[in-house]
Amino acid sequence: MCLDIDDTLIDFTSAGKRALSLLIGRADLWPLWERITDWHVARVVAGEIDYASMHHRRTQCFLAEIGVVLEAEDVARFERRRKEVLRSSWRLFDDVLPCLEWLRAADVLIAAVTNASGAHQRAKLADLGLTRFFDHVAIAGEVGAAKPDPVMFHAVCAVLDCDPSEAAHVGDKLHTDAVGARDAGLEGVWLDRTGGDAEVPEGVHVIGGLDELPQLLVSEFARIGVPAQR
Questions:
Q1: GO biological process annotations for this chain's record (predicted)?
Q2: What's the CATH class of domain 2-11+92-220?
């Protein structure tokens, strides 16, 4: 079983919005922050820059976009403060621990699959007591490919020693997570916590919370399958 981290296990968007609005005094700039972040993460995955440089340049670019031009030292200070606030704000969704405990009790291999920084994602998992559940943590910058690239999903399956057809991936992003996994030969599961009205592509499963995942795996076992057990 492969699981995305941010906004699947951890309520990252709420924490990120809170940290950003606290530092800039505005609550309407999160979409801009996300767009700039996605562009810079793509540069990390392409091997053009490392994560540490990306964080600085992303923040510098964002501030410049809103008309705030700072010296490098001030940008670094802003980013350090943002990370401090962010780290104190991380929270698990209520359905996470019961789901992970169920998967662990079923002896299913579990991987966390993320496009974000390895150091920060591993810190989140450790801070929130989730590290013990995962057999593998796949980081886009370390793999050299990012979701929805099939290489990312296939690399995880190789580490877990299972065929893609034996695996399922769950994430909050319809195309990056669910469609990407489906196209890579896994079963793609879209975690739609908000109950949106987006058109769901054929072959993608939808759940409203991780509390629905065990039932999906049991009731759809013949079609989904679960990763090879120990």
A1: small molecule metabolic process
A2: alpha beta
